[in-house]
Design a protein that fits this description.
heterodimer; A: 5 helices; 3% strand; B: Beta-Lactamase; five-stranded antiparallel beta sheet; 11 helices; rod-shaped
């Protein structure tokens, strides 16, 4: 199929636009909190989508395979991660620069007194403990699907 | 009070990001393998796009985190502040992308399921079609062979039944409901003497008796069949045929009588033989009775004759009494001749058998009778077989046989004619035919001509013992005699007027065989 000659220009325009993100080119003006709101909404959307995938693969699997089990584990971890990340973002929004000591250094600390919000922030910063196992479950899931498909193809 | 150092969390963040990128790309690799293995599988397609989105998200987020750590902790916070919204924006966009892929999974899956159902149906239909095509191909391949085998079987079957139909010695026939032949085998044509095409002959017309036809048709219409019905048919020139008939009615789909089929057995020969047997039995009985009567009468007749002749000596030859005695003597002698004939018929008379030549015997008879026959305008035609073997027989009695036959022939030809005498040998028998061109013998009396005292001559002209005596003599010689009237010419196969007596005499009997002399 013949591509439109101007199609290659679109990524360049997008790159330029994103490179100067502090300038709002839209007709409607967007305030500073909009970014975090959208991001949080994206977390919730992502969770909801994963929840649907979890529910669907559990109730009506299209193909019988052990791979679905690992995919469901992946969904579970990623839903949890999304919620943790959401919480982390919320917690961070309640902290002020005075809550940090030696900010932007290797010795950076959460300044005393240690409040619940600070502990929550600290724990949610460890979100990779949910994200990485989730992705590992996704790897195992796809490997299982592949091996079974390969076995079936060999038959 | 000390704060909580963030270094462990940052470390986890840094390496966790790296691992997330690694795992997401490994997952993408497996998804790619799956798509390549089964390109038409929607699930693998979905997982592939899902993994792309996940890998892009993990890459964006992971790189963002790692770059942030590196930039922030290397005093390049300003640069990070410029990149931070970009990274956040990418992360948000890619999270939404992953969610979108999942959301569209639902719709895609529904379409995929529908397509797959159709595909399964199509596959089943294709499989069925392929199976049917294969069957059709096999059928086509073997069709010719099957047709050949079945045609052969049909031909064999047809041949078998055709042979049975044609070779049967019984009549097998098919008629329409009106009785016209639709098919009849060659035995039937021959037996019934059909000269026209069978399709133009009505079987009903061949029935000699109306009662038989009524019984036959009633049986077919009432019961649908007729079994072992003995009928008399008008046959060909050989005379009527007696047939034992079995027939079945044929009905169409509406149960209407449309035709019939039947088998007929020729009983003519059996019937003739039965009649001959009855006749022979009758003749034997009559002969026995005649012998008894003759034996008892012979003695008183001898005494009467003796006394009559003695009394004749006592009277003058020209006296009235003497003349009366002469009449008595003459009549008594006539009575004795009759008695002698009866004894001959019943084989009770003397018999002196010697080796004789039959042609000579007939020649001797003709030498005496030919002159008289010629006077009555009767010609003698001799067809004597040459080199006939001699037989054992009573020459005198055989003379009597041929005299009787010639006398009868002469009686049947008052206006002249021909007597054809034929002799020959068939197997171990001499066959003699005495044929005349006279009036012939009606069918009604054929069975009676050998009976004693049966005559067609006027009263006083014949005793009715001639053929009885002939019959007795032939039987006494171990032979047989039959009559044929009218006569079928063996050469032209045409029927000619007249009568032929056929005599068969055995060749190899010995002089002592037949001597059952009494008296």
């Amino acid at each position: 199929m013949k591509k439109h000659p101007y199609i290659h220009i679109i990524p360049i325009i997008l790159l330029v636009l994103f490179s100067f993100a502090e300038n709002c080119w839209a007709l409607q003006s967007h305030g500073a909190p909009e970014g975090i709101y959208v991001h949080q909404m994206a977390h919730l959307l992502f969770s909801g989508a994963l929840g649907y995938l979890y529910w669907h693969t559990r109730t009506s699997p299209v193909i019988k395979s052990k791979g679905w089990k690992f995919l469901q584990i992946f969904c579970f971890f990623l839903i949890a991660w999304n919620l943790i990340a959401f919480t982390g973002h919320e917690a961070f929004s309640h902290l002020t620069p005075t809550d940090f000591i030696d900010k932007n250094t290797w010795k950076e600390q959460l300044a005393p007194p240690i409040t619940g919000m600070k502990i929550l922030y600290y724990l949610t910063k460890m979100d990779h403990f949910l994200n990485v196992p989730g992705l590992f479950a996704l790897v195992i899931s796809l490997r299982t699907f592949y091996r079974e498909a390969l076995l079936e193809a060999k038959k | 009070m000390n704060g909580i150092p963030l270094l462990p969390a940052v470390t986890v963040e840094f390496f966790g990001s790296a691992l997330a990128i690694l795992f997401s790309f490994i997952a993408l690799r497996y998804a790619w393998f799956l798509v390549r293995l089964q390109p038409s599988n929607f699930i693998w397609g979905f997982l592939f796009y899902f993994c792309i989105a996940m890998a892009a998200f993990s890459l964006s987020r992971g790189v963002g985190h790692m770059v942030r750590i590196i930039l922030v902790y290397t005093d390049q916070n300003t640069l990070w502040k410029q990149l931070s919204p970009l990274s956040g924006g990418f992360n948000t966009m890619l999270m939404i992308s992953v969610a979108a892929v999942i959301i569209y999974y639902h719709k895609g899956l529904a379409a995929y399921k529908l397509l797959r159902q159709e595909a399964v149906k199509l596959f089943d239909a294709n499989t069925q079609l392929a199976s049917s095509a294969k069957q059709l191909q096999e059928l086509n391949t073997h069709l010719e062979e099957m047709v050949e085998v079945r045609t052969h079987n049909l031909s064999e079957s047809e041949k078998k039944f055709r042979n049975f139909f044609e070779n049967s010695k019984d009549i097998i026939f098919f008629c329409d409901k009106n009785g016209y032949f639709t098919n009849i085998n060659s035995s039937g044509i021959k037996l019934l003497g059909l000269t026209q095409p069978p399709e133009s002959v009505n079987f009903h017309d061949l029935f000699a008796h109306k009662n038989d036809l009524e019984t036959y048709l009633n049986g077919l219409h009432t019961d649908g069949f007729i079994s072992d019905l003995e009928i008399e048919c008008r046959g060909n020139n050989e005379g009527p045929k007696f047939i034992l008939l079995t027939a079945n009615a044929i009905y169409d789909l509406d149960g209407q009588f449309v035709a019939y089929e039947g088998i007929g057995k020729d009983m003519t020969r059996l019937r003739t033989m039965t009649e001959q047997l009855i006749n022979q039995e009758k003749m034997a009985s009559v002969g026995q009775m005649a012998a008894g009567v003759a034996h008892e009468i012979n003695t008183p007749l001898g005494i009467i004759l003796g006394y009559t002749q003695l009394m004749m000596d006592d009277f003058e030859p020209d006296s009235e009494t003497h003349n009366s005695l002469l009449v008595m003597e003459r009549q008594t002698k006539a009575c004795r001749r009759i008695v002698a004939d009866l004894l001959k018929f019943s084989r009770q008379a003397h018999s002196a058998k010697t080796v004789i030549d039959l042609n000579t015997i007939i020649g001797e008879v003709l030498a005496v009778t030919e002159h008289t026959l010629n006077i009555n305008r009767i010609d003698i035609i001799r067809h004597f077989g040459a080199g006939l073997p001699q037989i054992v027989g009573d020459a005198e009695k055989l003379h009597q046989v041929f005299i009787n036959l010639f006398n009868n022939a002469q009686f049947a030809m008052e206006n002249g004619g021909k007597i054809i005498v034929t002799t020959g040998k068939i197997n171990n028998e001499l066959h003699i035919i005495v044929q005349d061109t006279g009036t012939g013998i009606p069918d009604e009396i054929k069975n009676k001509i050998f009976d004693p005292f049966f005559t067609t001559k006027d009263v006083g002209k014949g005793t009715g013992l001639g053929l009885s005596v002939t019959y007795g003599i032939i039987k006494n010689h171990g032979g047989r005699i039959s009559v044929e009237s009218p006569v079928t010419d063996p050469l032209s196969n045409e029927t000619v007027q007249g009568t032929a007596f056929h005599i068969w005499l055995p060749v190899n009997s010995t002089p002592n065989d037949e001597n059952r002399e009494q008296h």
